[in-house]
TrEMBL record:
A Gene Ontology BP annotation from the UniProt entry: deoxyribonucleotide catabolic process
GO molecular function terms noted in the UniProt entry: deoxyribose-phosphate aldolase activity
Record-level GO cellular component terms: cytoplasm
Coiled-coil region: none
Keywords: Cytoplasm, Lyase, Schiff base
Name of the protein described by the UniProt record: Deoxyribose-phosphate aldolase
Reactions accelerated catalytically: 2-deoxy-D-ribose 5-phosphate = D-glyceraldehyde 3-phosphate + acetaldehyde
Cross-referenced Pfam families: DeoC
Subcellular location per the Swiss-Prot or TrEMBL entry: Cytoplasm
Function comment: Catalyzes a reversible aldol reaction between acetaldehyde and D-glyceraldehyde 3-phosphate to generate 2-deoxy-D-ribose 5-phosphate.
Amino acid sequence: MKLNRYIDHTILKPVTTLEDIKKLCMEAVEYDFAAVCVPPPFVKLAKTFVGSTPTKVATVTGFPFGYSAIEAKVAETVLAIIDEADELDMVANLLAIRNGDWGYLEKEIATIMPLIRNKQRSIKVIIESGILLEEEIIRCCELYAKYGVDFVKTSTGYAEKGASVEAVALMRKHLPANIHIKASGGVRTFAFAKDLIDAGATRIGTSSGVAIMKESVLAGKKETN
């Protein structure tokens, strides 16, 4: 398992600085992480830092609460694509999920998907699994599978509960094999990251990517001793 290729090295704090972005990107390039995930205003800068390396640049839309109007999410999506983001992590309308307004959610994803596919980008839909009922998670999996999203993502990291092994396992059970799972929110250790991957996650969103990689090296040394 090439753990580094599972990691989306992330910083989404509202007080993020230019130096923070540079450090994040340089670490991601050094460790050959799958992607960096940065606030929308920093996408262009991140692209210059990662250059032609395999590390992708991801950003967020509808973040962190998901209740932006569809038109607002469309505008954010278009701007992210113009700025050359490779991957977009979109927060689903959590109000609609909790109120059972699946028609609205379907309209939202049906509106966004053509923008993503026409420009050959990837989309990760964040459902905030830590605050949803099991049946709501399953219904989300069914809806987003129907529209062929690239990933369903557990969490923003801003709710009271982030990723869990149980949620990832449930999502893996109810998603087709071609749709990936990104686990994020509270992933700070190698042991937890490995448990999430074993449960079915194929991406790990974390601000602790470097620490996790260092832990993985130590764990590997212990196994060989």
